[in-house]
């Protein structure tokens, strides 16, 4: 069963890769290259916890290693029950252009929820970057809402014989 509640004949657990040292190194480099290829210059990357967290940190780390400034943030699924009640943690600046990141995009629901929180908090979302696009309805839904999607891999890439 997928996070969307849908059933699928295959499951992609990207966290096995996104939370490994080598996976972080590669995703960081490839994510930064994908941002450059799209000519996106965000001040920060982030998305809905937990899937987006290691992706955002890997890309921010790759940028720092390349001598570039790019920060990471995370969007809580629910407001914090104490303190300031923030929904966004990390290096997020109101008014800054950001890219929402995902480990896997299926329907786009997680990205759209993150986008809503980011925009309500004063961020300007310029697009969405995913490690894997399952090629379900996510791309269409995101683009219809005005957010282009770039992906490092597609489900078809991973399922090739």
Descriptive account of the structure:
By secondary structure, the protein is an alpha/beta fold. It has a domain at 15-89 and 110-131 and 139-152: Rossmann fold, CATH 3.40.50.2020. It is built from six helices and six strands; from the N terminus they run H-H-E-H-E-E-E-H-E-H-E-H. Strands 3-2-1-4-5-6 form a six-stranded mixed beta sheet, with helices on both faces. Helix 2 packs across helix 3 (52-65). The longest helix is centred in the first third of the chain and has 17 residues, at 21-37. The two termini are 23 Å apart. The mean pLDDT is 93.
Sequence-ordered SSE layout with sheet pairings:
Layout: H1 15-18, H2 21-37, E1 44-48, H3 52-65, E2 71-75, E3 88-90, E4 97-105, H4 109-120, E5 124-133, H5 138-144, E6 149-154, H6 155-159
Parallel strand pairs: 1-2, 1-4, 4-5, 5-6
Antiparallel strand pairs: 2-3
Helix pairs in contact: 2-3
């Amino acid at each position: 069963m997928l996070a969307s509640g849908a059933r699928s004949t295959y499951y992609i657990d990207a966290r096995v890769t996104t939370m490994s040292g080598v996976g972080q190194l590669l995703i960081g480099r490839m994510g930064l290259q994908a941002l450059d290829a799209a000519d996106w210059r965000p001040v920060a990357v982030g998305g809905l916890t937990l899937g987006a967290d290691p992706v955002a940190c890997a890309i921010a780390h790759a940028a720092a290693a390349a001598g570039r400034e790019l920060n990471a943030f995370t969007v809580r699924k629910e407001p914090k029950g104490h303190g300031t009640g923030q929904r966004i943690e990390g290096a997020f600046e109101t008014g800054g252009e950001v890219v929402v990141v995902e480990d896997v995009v299926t329907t786009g629901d997680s990205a759209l929820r993150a986008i809503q929180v980011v925009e309500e908090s004063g961020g300007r979302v310029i697009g969405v970057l995913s490690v894997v696009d399952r090629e379900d309805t996510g791309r269409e839904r995101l683009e219809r809402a005005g957010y282009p999607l770039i992906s490092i891999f597609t489900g078809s890439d991973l399922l090739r014989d």
